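hey can u check if this looks right to u? its 491 residues, i copy pasted from the old doc so theres a chance i mangled smth
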Amino acid sequence: MEHYDLVVIGAGPSGFAAAMRAVDFKKKTLIIEKNRVGGAGVTNGALSSKTWWELSREVSAFRKNLQRYNIPVPTVGYAEVHAEVQKAVQERKGLLEEQMDFLKNESPHLLEFKKGEAHLISQNQIEILTGAHKEIVEADFIILATGSRPRYLPELPIDEKIVMTSEGIESMSDFPESMVIVGAGVIGCEYATIFSGFGRTKVHLIDKGDRILPFEDADAVRIIERNMENNGVLIHRNSRLVKMSIVNGRVEYELEYTDGSSQIFNVEKALVSVGRIPNFEELWDDKVGIKISKRGIENDDTQTSISTIYAVGDLTADISLVNVGELEGRYAVEKMFGNPGKMVYENISTIMFLNPEVAGVGLNETQAKEKGIEYKVVCLEYSTIPRAIAKRNTQGFIKLLVTNDDDMKILGMRVVGNNASSAIQAVALLIFMNKGVKELAECVHPHPSITEGIQECVRMLLGKSLLKPAALSGKLSCKRYVGGSYEDIHF
């Protein structure tokens, strides 16, 4: 029986990151993957959907520029767009496979890869089934990194052809003329942005509340909703899906609204986006004894209830993001073989690929209020940033939250607008270091850049801004939230 220092089950983002970190420690490592290297993070998840988004954004901008100069707008073909997405997927998948092949050839004693279905038969033994072939290997440690899949609602006729999840998107042959999206969370809103951006699909979005993205601040959501509706998206607010059926090859669905009324709609396709569920069915024998909850595998700092077995990525109840999964995979290996630091989630950076993109780190105002935290908040519109003016796109804002004291330690930041994702990393580092805004004030930002807006936010908090909130009311604001209400900060 072959023995390994570590066996990683799953070659998605978290499993791949764990294996590469184990190689750093010179540990004999086996990766087992039953489907595709890269997992959903590459093939039908993060990379794939973000490539769709990038192409949609380019098409939308191109179409608007042609319309501005009264130039006829050409039709965008689904086949060409889909081929470009697949090319991106293959590029990333090929990169990962190339690295594994190199390591397997150069250091066969350190890294092995086996294609097959893994099953834990004890706390240290794994059975691998590849077709009719079965083998058992042994390991000092095991990492479970089997990812997740789209959640199915049993009352919906999901066939991945007419009523789809994200896994069915790739099987379409053309842009549908209409589509309803069930679920107004991040993924649902991203797909609404993608399909409306191509200009070929009338998108319906079902939202049970009075606004989409209920966990986000209202000022950010207002911009996103306005842009969606300007792009033709029909947002069904305060609605509940009563039933959905496939009628004559199309989707018929009925909504009931909070005012008691109801309405029936007919569209070509439906996309169900109501979250993901972890893949751990039949992953281990009952005698192994791994504890699970409704949210996923129970773990303490990535370690399961079994000391030799760790769980990372979407299997756990933590944040289901690629960067978090990679962080957990690396951390689990460091916990086994090294001297890890502390696993910190408070400074995790996030991006919502909407129109415009929304980047965040730490707390937003909604979360700070829910926690009962008093804070100072400064907000600066993109229309005051030279780079945004030069790009001829001044829609958006930067919002920075700090503690309501002289230290002004950073609680969080949201950036809504062009290049939002490039503006948040310095703040993420300062949150990790438990620092205040004074460190940011000392930075000299390149000009012109979006990050200059962050510097101006900090200067406002310190009372030495180039632009004064009192003079540019509506474009700049500096307030304090205490006792459930806002008050202006005057210097």
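The chain has three domains: 3-44+83-150+277-337, 163-274, 356-488.
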